[in-house]
Amino acid sequence: MLPEPTHINFRLYVVTDRQQTAGRALEEVVVAAARGGAGAIQLREKDLSARDLYALGARVQAAISPYGVPLLINDRLDVALALDAAGVHLAVASYGGGAPRARHWEAPGGLHP
User: Fold this and answer.
1) Single pTM value for the model
2) How far apart are CA 35 and CA 66, in angstroms?
3) Are 59 and 27 in contact (CB under 8 A)?
C-alpha cells in the first residue's frame, strides 16, 4: 500500500532563481519562504550541470525539510529521482510533447494538486 499523497497548497508556490536573491544564499531564501507558508518549492536553476543541481537540491531539501515543504525539480527527472524529491516539473518542451505520460511524474505517495 502506498503512503497517503501529499497535497500542495498552491496559494504560495515558490519557483527559485538564485540570480534574484539580492545576494542572499538560496537556502536562506527558501527557508524564509517555507516559514512564510510556501506550499512547495520548485528548484528551477537551468544553467547548472546535473552535478551542481543535485548539490544545490540537496542543500535546499535539507533546509526546507524541517518545515514539511515538498521540493520539486525543474526539467530533470534524473536529479529528482536521485534526490528523492517530491516530484518534477516538466514543460512540454522538456519531453517533446509526444509522450503525455512523461509529462507528470510524482514520487510514490507523492504530490497531488
Assistant:
1) 0.78
2) 10
3) yes
